[in-house]
Amino acid sequence: MSDTLFPLGDDRPKKQEPVGAGTPRVLVPVRNQMLMMYSDLDGLLAEDHQARTVWAFAEKADLSLLTNKIRAVEGHAGRPCCDPRVLLALWIYATLDGVGSARALAKLCEEHVAYQWICGGNPVNYHSLSDFRSNCGALFDALLIDSVASLRSKGLVTMNRIAHDGVRVRANAGQGSFRRGSRLDEFLKEAQEQVEALKQEIDEDPAASNLRRKAARERAARERKEKIEEALRQLPDLEKKRNRSGEERRVSTTDPDARKMRMADGGWRPAFNVQFTVDTKTAVVVGVDVNNQGSDGGQLLPAVERIKQQHGIYPEEVLADGGFVKKEDIEALSLPPYETTVYAPVPKPKVKGRSEPYKTQTPEIIRWRERMDMPVSKEIYKQRGATVELVNAHARNRGLQQLSVRGLKKARAVALLFALAHNLVRTTKLAS
After folding, report:
1. What is the pLDDT of residue 252?
2. What per-residue confidence (pLDDT) applies to 14?
3. Burial degree of 172 (CB within 10 A; 0-12, 13-18, 19+)
4. For labeling, which of 65, 227, 242, 365 is most exposed (least CB within 10 Å)?
5. DSSP of 216-257, one letter per residue?
6. What is the model's pLDDT at position 31?
7. Is 222 exposed, middle or buried (0-12, 13-18, 19+ CB in 10 A)?
C-alpha cells in the first residue's frame, strides 16, 4: 500500500502532442440563447457621437416655415406627422455619411443605431424623406443664411474675402433620354393618350382591388407627360444658343433641366453646374447656386450679387479660377456699388509673345492684369485652392458624384444640404 493519500502517477515525462494535431477549440456562436438586455436608445449612442451634434443643430433651427403648415394640432382630430426636426437631422447626418437615396436612408432608420437615435423610436418612410428634401429648398437656403449670420455676429465669418468655384455633377438622366423636337412631339402625343386611357380605366372600375396600382401608373404617366411638355418648352431657348457642332438641339425626356457638359475626364454627360461661395478665413460656405450652364463664364457677378442679397454686404475681394474670367464682370465688380477686387488668372495671349494689354482695354482690366503679376496677389490667390477647392473635395467624398434627384429645384436642395453639412462640421471645429 502507498504511503500517500492520492496516487502521484508516473513521474516519467509524457510525450508532447504535435501542435495542430488535435481539434481546435473555438468560441462557437450560439444565436438561440436567451439574453436579458436593458438599454435605451440614448445609452446606445456615445456622448460625443456626430449624430448628437447634428440633432443639436436641428433642434435649434427655425422650422416655422414647416411647422406653421401642420394641420394636426392639440385638441383637434388628426394624425400626428413626423417632426420636421427629425427629417432635417436625418438628411444632414445622411449627407455627412455619404447617403443620398431616400430609400437607403429609410432602411438605415430601421437598422443603424445612429439613425434610430435621431428617429427616437418613431417610424419614418422614404416618401416623407424624399418629399422633405425635394420641397424644402427655401428652408435649407434660409437655414444657411441664418447659420452664416450667427457666425458673423460672433466675428468668425467676415466675408471680406470670398472664393467662388463650380463643380459639374452628373445628372440623373441617361444619355439616350435626349430627344429632338420632332421626337418630343411624338412622345407627348403618346403620353397624352396613355394618361387618358388610364384615367378612363380608373373611372370605369373605381372599386377595383388594384385601384391603388392603377392610380400609381396614372400618376407616373402624368409626370412623364409633364416632363415632355417641359422639354418642349425649353427647346426654343436652347436652340437660340450657339451650337458649334451644327447638330439639332436635344432635351432630356426624364430631366429637361439637365444639359450635356464636358466633365473632368473629358467626356460629355448630362450634368448640373453646382457652385459654392466660401469665406476664405473659415472655409465656411456662404452661398450656393445650381445652374445648367456648361461654362462658368459670366457666373462671378451673379455670385457677388447673391452675397449682397442674402447677407447684405459686398465682399471686398473675390477669388475665382480662369473659367470665370469675363472682362465685363471684372469691370463691373471694380466699380460702384460693388468695388470688389477680383483675383483671377489672366488668360494666356492668343498671339504668341504679346503680353502687354491691348490699347482698347479699359483701366479696370489693365489694373487687374497688373495686379495679378504682383507676388502678393499670387499668394492671396493660393487661398482659393485651400478653401473652395476643399469644399468641392469634401462634397465629392460625401457622395456629390451623381444626383439622385431630377430638376434644378431639387438639385439645388441637395447642394444646400451639402453646404449645411459642411458648415456644421466647420462650425464645430471653429468652436473647439
Report:
1. 85
2. 62
3. buried
4. 242
5. HHHHHHHHHHHHHHHHHHHHHHHHHS--SS-PPP-EESS-TT
6. 85
7. middle
Indicate the pTM of the whole model.
Answer: 0.85
Tell me, yes or no, whether 348 and 275 share the same domain: yes
Flag the least confident range among 202-206, 323-327, 417-421: 202-206
Alpha-carbon distance 110 to 122, whole Å? 10
Strands 317-319 and 259-262: unpaired
Among 307, 305, 373, 311, residue whose Cα is nearest residue 344: 373
Look over the chain and give the mean of its residue pLDDT values, rounded to a whole number.
Answer: 86
DSSP state, residue 206: T
What's the gap between Cα 379 and its chain centre?
31
* Model confidence pLDDT, tens digit, residues 29-43: 888 888 777 888 888
* Per-residue DSSP letter, 120: T
Question: Domain for residue 8, yes or no?
Answer: no
Label residue 312 left, alpha or beta by phi (over 0 means left) and psi (-120 to 50 means alpha): left
DSSP 45: S
User: What per-residue confidence (pLDDT) applies to 56?
Assistant: 95
How far is residue 328's CA from residue 333's CA, in Å, rounded to a whole number? 9
Could you write out the three-class secondary structure of 270-324?
Answer: EEEEEEEEEECCCCEEEEEEEECCCCCCCCHHHHHHHHHHHHCCCCCEEECCHHH
Whether 222 and 124 map to the same domain: the answer is no
Quote the domain boundaries for residue 398.
Answer: 144-173+258-409
- Angle in degrees, 0-180, between the axes of helices 126-135 and 408-431, rounded to the nearest 10: 90
Q: What 3-state class would DSSP assign to 374? A: coil
pLDDT of residue 283: 94
Give domain status of residue 427, yes or no.
Answer: no
Q: Are residues 302 and 380 in the same domain?
A: yes
pLDDT of residue 232: 74
Question: What's the CA gap between 225 and 234, in Å, rounded?
Answer: 14
Q: Judge whether 218 lies within some domain.
A: yes
C-alpha cell at 101: 437615396
The per-residue pLDDT for 332 is 94
Do both 91 and 112 map to the same domain? yes
Instruction: Report the candidate in 384, 373, 308, 375 with the shortest Cα–Cα distance to residue 339.
Output: 308
Ramachandran angles phi, psi of 93, nearest 5°: -65, -40
Predicted pLDDT at 212 = 64
Same domain for 301 and 222? no
Query: pLDDT tens for residues 193-215?
Result: 676 776 666 666 655 546 666 66
Q: How many domains does the chain have?
A: 3
Query: Same domain, yes or no, for 380 and 343?
Result: yes
Query: Considering just the CA atoms, what is the radius of gyration of the chain in Å?
Result: 30
Cell of 178: 435626349
